[in-house]
Fold this sequence. Notes:
By secondary structure, this protein is mainly α. It has helices at about 1-10, 15-50, 50-60, 60-85, 90-115, 120-125, 135-145, 145-160, 165-190, 195-215, 235-270, 270-310, 310-340, 340-345, 350-365, 370-385, 390-415, 415-455. The protein has one domain. It has 18 helices and no strands.
Amino acid sequence: MNNKKATLELGTKSVGRLLVQYALPAIVAMTAASLYNIIDRVFIGQVVGPMAISGLAITFPFMNLASAFGAAVGVGASTAISVKLGQRDYATAENILGNTVTLNLLIGISFSVICLLFLDPILRFFGASDATIPYARSFMEIILAGNVISHMYFGMNAVLRAASKPRQAMMATLFTVVMNILLDVVFIWWWHWGIRGAAFATIISQALALCWQMEQFANQKELLHLKRGIYRLRRHLVENIIAIGISPFLMNVCACVVVIFINNQLVRYGGDMAVGAYGIANSIAMIFVMFVIGLNQGMQPIAGYNYGSQQTDRLMRVVKLAVFAATGIMVTGWLTAHLAPYYCARMFTTDTELIRQAIKAIKINMMMFPFIGFQMVVTNFFQCIGKVKISIFLSLSRQLLFLIPLLAVLPHFFGLDGVWSSLPASDFTASLVAAVIMFVYMRRLTHQPKEQSRS
């Protein structure tokens, strides 16, 4: 009953308090997740060397691709559950939970098997050179072997948030962070397992957290819990999950394509060190991006519930608050990039050339951050209200419509500088497009009651 009361509060409690209640644990969890990825890279860069950092950067497309499939299920299922809880359709929400487990198992295993069979050709396609492919292969063999664990872990965490358990979701992520750091010390620093040690630390920490998550959902007293009869895939539920999850799926697939394109252009115009510099810059940027992703995750159950219960005023209030918060977060990131880039780069390596290139990459990569938070929240907003086509367009606009063409053209004229400058140029253009679309939608929403009253 307490769980049901917490769910009903999504439609009655102060929107500001709800956003803090749901977003803060998600922000802590997502930031912690990015921090343990950074700690992996810090250990690898300091203990193994600069080429290992470049090799790890080659694996970013793999991680984005795996996240794409995880997001299609996790985000789709959690949003669908939030809407069903808003409609007080608890039986369907429970069936979505069971279908989430089954989908994660099927997709996670299939992805691992296919990628392991063609690992070396895929890494070459991603931009690996003779110097970096041994590091990338060593890392991905372990990550792919445990991919089903990662899929299930992230999927169950998303459902925990949708089921009004943001603190439990946060605790699961914090546990993986602490455990990952401890295992990094043991595997990389003490036992000298190198880059494979970082991969083992990641999978083992997620496996332990997953055991705890499944124990939470096994509790029969919970509003949503695991039981017989909910695991058989139901076509209409799967279609609903995928329809909602297609936007983050395509966003992550595009991120994969873009990173492949960036890595290949960086290798062509700047060599392996430029790839390593981008890996460092991307790691720093992801801290602040994860803040906003956490904010969006906290916003999602509130927006989904109030959209399901047709409380439009509360829906718009939570969006406005999220935009203000996201902008503040990304401005902080912009200040960090321009005031302390050396210290950010120095965490990862002692190599002076890699530090020099990383400082430049950090400044340019985060140049347009004050605008990015708005674009991310608006994209998530349209996803929450079921405007899938708009959400997909906004997800793809930065990466496919703007960034890839710029990456193809600018380096021909400006070399390596052209690769770097493509990033802020596409960020600004995508944010401008999101602002125009949101302005048009808000005008329609504002005039809708007046039009209805006249009719």
